[in-house]
Specification:
alpha+beta; five-stranded antiparallel β-sheet; 5 strands; binds zinc ion
């Protein structure tokens, strides 16, 4: 049994999934509750962030407040 190979494959798949999710999220915009502005973040800053549903615990680049920001899916070909 190639147990280690299987484990490595599972870990690689998980890592790919996490990066893929971050890439998808980098296309979304986040809404800051504190200042009401929408912002985007590069996928590298979206790795391993805490989230509940569509709310993400992020720091707003506009006002610097850290809080739960709602993700908004990109619409059409905008941006
Ligand atoms: Zn803000």
């Amino acid at each position: 049994m190639q147990l280690w190979l299987g484990l490595a494959l599972v870990l690689a798949a998980l890592a790919a999934l996490i990066v893929w999710q971050a890439c998808l999220l980098s296309r979304c915009r986040f809404w800051c509750h504190a200042c009401g502005k929408l912002f985007r973040l590069p996928w590298t800053q979206l790795l391993l962030r805490r989230h509940v549903g569509e709310d993400w615990l992020l720091r707003c680049p506009h006002c610097g407040q850290k809080g739960w920001c709602k993700a908004r899916k990109p619409m059409g070909k905008e941006g």
